What does this fold into?
Amino acid sequence: MRLFIFIISIIALCEPSFAHDKRGKYNINASVRGAEHIVLAQVTDVSYAMSKGDNNSEVLPHTFVTYQILRVIKGNPRQANDKITLRFLGGRGNEATFMHPSNYPLFDVGDQDVLFLRGNARNACPLLRCGEGRFRSIQGLLYSDKGHEVIQTKRQEVDFGKHQPLADVMTHTVSKTTIYLKEAGRSSEGPPEAELPVGTQFKTDAFINFVNTKVRALYPPEVLDKWPMIPATDPRNPFVVKPLRDVRSRTVRDFPYKPVVPPTDADRLEQQRYDQNQGNPVIK
It folds into this structure.
């Protein structure tokens, strides 16, 4: 009986209305800047653990997803082929309960994704804007976390197209239980379906090259060579989380590109003279 309740509760929490998902242009430039790391990686393990309830922290289930990095797009190139473990709020709790926050992805061993990472071991979801920070590579083509085609428009922008109810998107194994997501039917009420964008669905390699070009325009190789590693997490180690609170989402402003360039010898000399003059202007 508990197993039956467990299956039903997961479906109720996880069933999204795919047909009515909001689609729109994706600000790829802001995402490249906002992500701490961008990688192509494959899931090798999914496990669960509970946080500790120390110092007013909350006891909550978490999911630990281990990825094998296949390619580093933004980050330290020495992490290529490393394994990283990402910690997500939600997962298998006590007995037959499963917590699944809205907009959080579900993962299966073998999934291959382009990940825009931010705040692993700090944030409840270590992806940039959570579900939006995961692009799924399925049979060489790219999809959003919920299965919308990722489109390259004629203006070289990223947009989302038709939803495809692929088995990899609609079927998941959660704690040895298989669940099936359900595509909602089209309602006669409500706003009309957004028009599909004009363009071509990204192939995975083409998307990686597209993003890589933007990364290289912003970050020279000598900067990336010194880039911090992706923080590590381990479900075997005790961990605490801060009490949950509502955080208003902020709109990411689209600033123009400005490459990150390391200081030159002249810059360092000018800063040294500025410090020696106790903040007075340096006369050249």
Observations:
- The longest strand covers residues 37-50.
- Residues 2-276 form one domain.
